[in-house]
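Page 42, continued from yesterday. The earlier attempt failed because a stray header line got pasted into the input along with the sequence. Redoing it now with the clean sequence only.
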Amino acid sequence: MNIGEASEHSGLPVKTIRYYEDIGLVRPLRSENGYRDFVDSDLQRLKFLQRARSLGFSIDECRELLSLYEDRNRASADVKAITHAKIKEVDRKIEELRSLRKVLSELVTACHGDDRPDCPIIDDLSGQHEPGQQDESNGRN
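This time it went through. Structure tokens are written below.
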């Protein structure tokens, strides 16, 4: 199967498949004319990569997971450990996003959103004003 067909079957763009080949995640055969010739095992790897990437695994994590996928003597504990580490990373990112949301909410609350030019959001972005900090000049937030 050519790269276009592999793209259709795997749900990955051709450019991504070429990149995965460049970094050694897939190694399709080459026909006599030099065209890529994807076989079923290549397609399975591409589908595996597409799903793993959609779950947020990095390229290096995908490389490790692919290695475990192909190792019939693997310990499922190894796969579980990688996935558990990914959950911790996701939890950390969720906390960062919650913190970011809190700061943004404070900024929105502090801004009057009227026709006046003074804006705590702009002040904060420029480093002139901290969210929640009282404006000493006029007693407003």
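Notes: The radius of gyration is 25 Å.
Reminder to self: strip header lines before submitting.
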